[in-house]
């Protein structure tokens, strides 16, 4: 079976969950081959990739790969596409992943699909487009299919792969060195899961009323082991940091459970969350448009409903 390249997402040497999802998906399409870009590769990383079915691991761990903005990863993948002729390439549909996918498509003269939420035989993708308003089924018809898949689209399942390593050297072009990273600033990593990877997201909007009131959203999130999200109205008001904004100009999330409190459901907010598997809405206005996409809805005051919900969950 042909190889399916999977670009590994990693932070501080830790393989991110979305990579395990992509490896699981790759197993249904061919033979998964993980591509490690940048420093931090270790036996633990190798074990995790192999446990999730990586038959091959291409390791390009030169510091230089992460020293420049995005382009080196696209050049690395383009080299592997030329050398190994894989059946396809899977990349996480994160902000960086989508940019790598686009650049790779140009370099390899291939088609690219972004924001896939499913992928089946023949690389036919279910794709969420127009800000999540429309789902289409699409397939790349030119070159090597490159598909950027949204985190949380499928559940990662372990299945041992050989994990055979192969070192890859890549001679970066001058173009790849055009924008050098001068500093990386680590974001505070709290106890909560990362927003785009979390299985549960609890979000608050303008209805929350103030930054201090976000404590009740956080309390509910913590009772569920969830990440906290916010609408743009809440982040623009300075009630919650912008990095937690969900929506068209924020993060795209696709968790198992999304709880929206005091959020009306503007199209730009929906664009970032409507592929969530189960959506629970708490809003005092029964006519709020977000109820149209809710699986469960509570018409009520969030200042009563959210603490009661938190209490019930904490009792269990
Ligand atoms: P509102 O629309 O004001 O809704 C507040 C809701 O809270 C109401 O439904 C109200 O009934 C309810 N409420 C009030 N008090 C309570 C209470 N005590 N209990 C229960 N419910 C209560 N928005 C995003 O979220 N993400 C984006 O990425 C984004 N990108 C944008 C990009 C562009 C180009 C533009 C033009 C807009 C964008 N927006 C985005 C803004 C978007 O259009 C909406 O303005 C925003 O989502 C509204 O946020 P909200 O639902 O919190 O506020």
What's the structural blueprint in terms of helices and strands?
Layout: E1 3-7, E2 10-11, E3 14-15, H1 17-27, E4 31-37, H2 43-51, E5 56-60, H3 71-84, E6 88-92, H4 95-108, E7 112-120, E8 124-129, E9 134-138, E10 146-149, E11 164-167, E12 200-204, H5 214-224, E13 227-230, H6 232-236, E14 257-261, H7 267-270, E15 278-283, E16 296-299, H8 302-315
Parallel strand pairs: 1-4, 1-6, 4-5, 5-11, 6-10, 7-10, 12-13, 12-14, 14-15, 15-16
Antiparallel strand pairs: 2-3, 7-8, 8-9
Helix pairs in contact: 3-4, 5-8
Bound molecules: flavin-adenine dinucleotide (FAD).
Family: Belongs to the ETF alpha-subunit/FixB family.
Keywords: FAD, Flavoprotein
Domain Electron transfer flavoprotein alpha/beta-subunit N-terminal: 4-185
How far is it from the N-terminal to the C-terminal residue, by CA?
48 Å
Task: Encode the helix/strand succession as letters.
Answer: EEEHEHEHEHEEEEEEHEHEHEEH
Small molecules held by this entry: flavin-adenine dinucleotide
What strand order characterises the main sheet? 9-8-7-10-6-1-4-5-11
Number of helices: 8
Rg measurement, Å:
20 Å
Name the average pLDDT.
94
The level of helicity is 25-40%
Low-confidence stretches: none
Structural classification: alpha/beta
Q: What spatial form do the alpha-carbon principal axes imply? A: elongated
How many beta-strand elements? 16
Q: What composes the largest sheet?
A: 9 strands, mixed
Proportion of residues in β-strands: 15-25%
């Amino acid at each position: 079976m042909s190889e399916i390249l999977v670009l590994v997402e990693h932070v501080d040497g830790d393989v991110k969950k979305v990579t395990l999802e992509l490896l699981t998906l790759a197993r249904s399409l061919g033979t998964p081959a993980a591509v490690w870009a940048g420093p931090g590769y270790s036996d633990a990383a190798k074990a995790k990739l192999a446990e999730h079915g990586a038959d091959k691991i291409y390791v390009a761990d030169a510091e230089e790969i992460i020293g420049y903005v995005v382009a080196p990863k696209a050049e690395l993948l383009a080299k592997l596409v030329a050398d190994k002729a894989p059946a396809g390439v899977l990349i996480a549909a994160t902000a960086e992943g989508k940019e790598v996918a686009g650049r790779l498509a140009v370099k390899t003269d291939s088609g690219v699909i972004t924001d896939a939420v499913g992928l089946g035989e023949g690389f036919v993708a279910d794709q969420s487009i127009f800000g999540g308003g429309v789902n289409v089924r699409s397939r790349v018809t030119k070159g090597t299919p490159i598909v950027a898949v949204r985190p949380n689209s499928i559940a990662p399942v372990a299945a041992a792969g050989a994990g055979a390593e192969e070192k890859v050297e890549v001679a970066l072009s001058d173009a790849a060195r055009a924008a050098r990273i001068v500093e990386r600033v680590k974001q505070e990593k709290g106890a909560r899961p990362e927003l785009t990877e979390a299985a549960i997201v609890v979000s608050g909007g303008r209805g929350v009323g103030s930054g201090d009131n976000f404590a009740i959203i956080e309390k509910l999130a913590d009772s569920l082991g969830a990440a906290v999200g916010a609408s743009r109205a809440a982040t623009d008001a300075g009630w919650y940091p912008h990095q937690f904004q969900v929506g068209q100009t924020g993060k795209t999330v696709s968790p198992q459970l999304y709880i929206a409190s005091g959020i009306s459901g503007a199209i730009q907010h929906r664009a970032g969350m409507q592929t969530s598997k189960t959506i629970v809405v708490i809003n005092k206005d029964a006519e709020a448009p977000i109820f149209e996409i809710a699986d469960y809805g509570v018409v009520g005051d969030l200042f009563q409903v959210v603490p009661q919900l938190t209490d019930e969950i904490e009792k269990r």
